[in-house]
Design a protein that fits this description.
It is a single chain. This protein is of the alpha+beta class. The strands form two sheets. The chain has a four-stranded mixed β-sheet with strand order 2-1-4-3. The termini are far apart.
């Protein structure tokens, strides 16, 4: 006699993919996911629709519910028109790559025209740079050290950031999510 024991799946291993009311993810990178507690709370507050569920059930003394794996907001959240200027978004725009040497390690950001020379902290003047390149360039102009960014810095659109975010799929993708996510497997970061 063979006994099949199903692995115990803890609720913490069951995040919910959050879709906007149009069934598109709120964001790709980071992927819009909620922990199981937040997903259940949103269900009970009638703020989301359950699109797909895990096999995992959680119980209270009076009820039980299957954990949602995909939920959609009942009210459409209009995305902002311009992405916020943040360190993370600069890295995402530059595909987590040093714009001077191409490494993906130890990233910081660099002012192409140094602040000491009048450069500002704007999309058009900041690039991702590894710490060694940033240190090597210091507060000098690119022509003085012959260090030019591989790509001229620019203000990205939300679409630019979403497209780049698709280059970095998360480590975990539940099969129920795949109909709502579009990863470009042919492009490498």
């Amino acid at each position: 006699m063979t006994i099949h024991v199903q692995p115990v799946v803890r609720p913490e291993a069951c995040p919910a993919l959050v879709l906007n009311a149009d069934y598109r993810p709120l964001s790709y990178y980071p992927l819009s996911i909620w922990c199981w507690q937040d997903a259940i709370k949103a269900v009970f507050l009638d703020r989301v629709n359950i699109v797909s569920e895990y096999d995992k059930v959680v119980r209270s003394p009076t009820s039980e519910i299957r954990l949602p794996s995909v939920i959609s907001l009942k009210t459409y959240v209009k995305p902002s028109r311009q992405p916020a200027f943040t360190r993370f978004n600069v890295f995402l725009r530059d595909r987590f790559t040093c714009q001077y040497c191409g490494t993906h390690e130890d990233l910081t950001f660099d002012h192409v025209i140094p602040r000491s020379k009048g450069g500002q902290t704007t999309w058009e003047n900041v690039v991702a740079a590894c710490a060694p390149c940033n240190l090597r360039k210091g507060d000098r102009m690119p022509r003085d050290v012959e260090m030019w960014p591989r790509q001229s810095p620019f203000a990205p659109t939300l679409n630019d950031l979403h497209s780049n975010g698709r280059l970095f799929p998360p480590n975990y993708l539940h099969e129920s999510w795949l109909d709502y996510l579009y990863w470009d497997s042919e492009l490498e970061p």
